[in-house]
Design goal:
about 180 residues; alpha+beta; Alpha-Beta Plaits; four-stranded antiparallel β-sheet; three-stranded antiparallel β-sheet; 5 helices; 7 strands; about 40% helix
Length: about 180
């Protein structure tokens, strides 16, 4: 009887240790633009491109919770939602949202931005509001259901990208 109890304890300890070795990695990406079901679907579609990832969008809180088998896979999932035109904040974690916009600080007269998630009128309004918040950005050609647009005026290009990132959108400067 005593041997059976010891065996059961040993097996339980092995399972516990094995479970710790296989612990999932999770991150919450905050301030992601999720105005509608199509935005949530866009994030879900991006996450499906990464094997072994589960994701949960909280549209009201503007968060995406990503869980995967390891840190490398979580980072790939973050990169996938960035590629899909979404931006968010993972500060205070070991993960990062890549700044691959190609924007340089300094005044420009025109800037063409690509890769933004802009599925509907609400997205488009949020994009226009973010661009308008930058001093000197006089006009933008953003239109719903398009992923590229041009900003004109006399403005700091990096400031426009930062304003869009803060609003939950990821963009790249077209060279």
């Amino acid at each position: 009887m005593q041997a059976a109890k010891l065996f059961a304890l040993a097996v339980g300890a092995l399972f516990a240790l094995g479970g710790a070795a296989r612990a999932d990695s999770t991150v919450e990406v905050k301030n992601v633009h999720l105005c509608c079901g199509a935005c949530v679907s866009g994030v879900a579609k991006a996450l499906k491109t990464v094997d072994g990832v589960t994701g949960k969008c909280d549209q009201k809180a503007k968060t995406v919770t990503i869980t995967a088998k390891d840190d490398e896979t979580v980072q790939k999932a973050i990169d996938a939602i960035v590629t899909a035109g979404f931006h968010g904040d993972v500060s205070g974690t070991k993960f990062k949202v890549t700044d691959d916009s190609g924007a340089s600080a300094g005044k420009v007269k025109t800037l063409t931005l690509t890769g933004v998630h802009n599925c509907c009128g609400q997205c488009n309004t949020a994009i226009k509001k973010a661009v308008a918040s930058v001093p000197g950005a006089a006009a933008d050609g953003a239109k719903a259901k398009t992923d590229s647009f041009e900003v004109t005026g006399d403005f700091d290009g990096a400031a426009v990208v930062k304003a869009l990132n803060t609003a939950g959108f990821h963009v790249k400067v077209k060279k």
